[in-house]
Each structure stands twice: as structure tokens, then as C-alpha cells.
Amino acid sequence: MLQQGNRPSMPDVRFNVEFAGDLMPGADQATARIRLQTLFKLSDDAAERLFSGLPVTLKRNVDGAVAAQLHAAFADAGAMTRIVPASTAALQPSGAGAAAAVPELDPFGWGKPPGQVHSHTDKAFHLFERSLAFVLLVLISVVAVIAVVELCFVLYKDLVSTTGFLLGLNELFEVFGMFLIVLIAIELMASIYMYMMDKSVHVEMMLLIAITALTRKVVVLDLESKGDPALYMLGMAALLATLIGGFYLVKRLDYRHRSDRD
């Protein structure tokens, strides 16, 4: 209560800090997510919710200093926040958030769970998951190296064959098929690596790998061994058209999201 004779002080302006997944120009979402997750010690579920594209209130009823600190921390990571005036009264005294350290970002219990059993189980699961992904990455890397060596050997064998230095039609199809195998291996490596970095499956990359694999199948296709070549080719064409259509829809949706953010 205010004592008589004292003039009431004007209430401090309080703010809400919001984030909707917007990034700074030229920023990478995976990099920004890793930086924010490390800085604020967020769990994987919290980081996934933070970059879901839906507006999330990071802090409520904070003063300008705390809002500026959060905005600067997100900007350093490549993300953009919105600072809007709070509609409710202040919940903290003036200057309570003016510390130099970055404020904690855990308004909804986003931090890693404090329970020891759940924490150990979660850590063990993620360690096992990352170990499997790492083993897959090593194996696909070995396969890619073997494929490159095999490609060099096949190309050398075809070039120095007795038929001359020009490659025949069969040799060209064989070399192109080997090239596509190497390309598929590289795309799989990139997909596994991105999964290890941000724990998300990139649908665009999966569709691209499927399209490349089906393209290789078309290149090395032997219709003589098929019972009904026309029906087989029709099925391949329908499958390829479906994959290309899905890839187009994913790219179009991503373009719309970027246009809305800009």
C-alpha cells in the first residue's frame, strides 16, 4: 500500500517476447536451432516446438532490459523475435531482469527433465540413437568410397578395352548407373548427417533420394527380362510421377513459408 504523502510511481512498461520461427536473412535453421538449444539448455522436444512455425511466447511481463537481452541472444543465433507490450500488469519489480546474464528460457518447463530416472533414460536413448546414426554414416561412407573405386575401375576397363577408346552404348549405361549409385550414397550421407545435427527427417531429401534411385533403375532397366514390359514401364512412370509431384509440393510449401516470413 502507498503511504499518504507519497506520490504513486508510474507503472513500468512490460513486454512479452514472442518467436514464430523467423530467421535472420541468410541464417540457417539447423544452425540457429543448435545454438539456441545449447544457449538455453533446451530439450529436443522444446527445440522442436520452438521451430514449429507457430507463435510461442518466450517470456511474459518482462522489462525492456530482459526483452532486449532475449532479442539479442536470438539475433546472435540467427533468429528474430517480436517484442510486444504486455497486456497485464507487471509481475516483477522494476530492474529484476536487468542482470547481465542471458535470462533463462524455460517458461513452460522446456528444460531438460530434473527427474534422475527419466533423465538417464532420455540420455541413454539419445546416445544409442546417435550411435546407430553414426554407425550408419560410417557404413554409407565406406560404401560410397567403394562405389567410387568401382566406378574408376569400370571406366578404366571400358576405356582400355580392345573395342577402342570410345564407350559403347552398354558401357555408357553402366557408367551412368555407377554415377547414380555414388550420387545416392552421397545423398544418404547428407541425410544421415542432417538427422544427427537437428534430429529431424528431411522429407525433401528423402524424396530426392527416391527419385535418384528410380532414375537409376530406369537407366539400367532390362526390359527383356520383364514379363510385360509395357505394364512395367507404366508402373515405373506412375511411381516416378508421384515422387516428382510430392517433391514439387514440398518445395512449393517451403517457398510459401519463406514468402510469408519475408
From TrEMBL:
Membrane-related topology note: Multi-pass membrane protein
UniProt xrefs under InterPro entries: P_starv_induced_PsiE-like
Major subcellular location class: membrane
Annotated Gene Ontology cellular component terms: plasma membrane
UniProt subcellular location: Cell membrane
Keyword terms of this UniProt record: Cell membrane, Membrane, Transmembrane, Transmembrane helix
Residues passing through the membrane, by range: 132-156, 176-196, 231-250
Protein name: Phosphate-starvation-inducible PsiE family protein
Taxonomic lineage: Bacteria, Pseudomonadati, Pseudomonadota, Gammaproteobacteria, Chromatiales
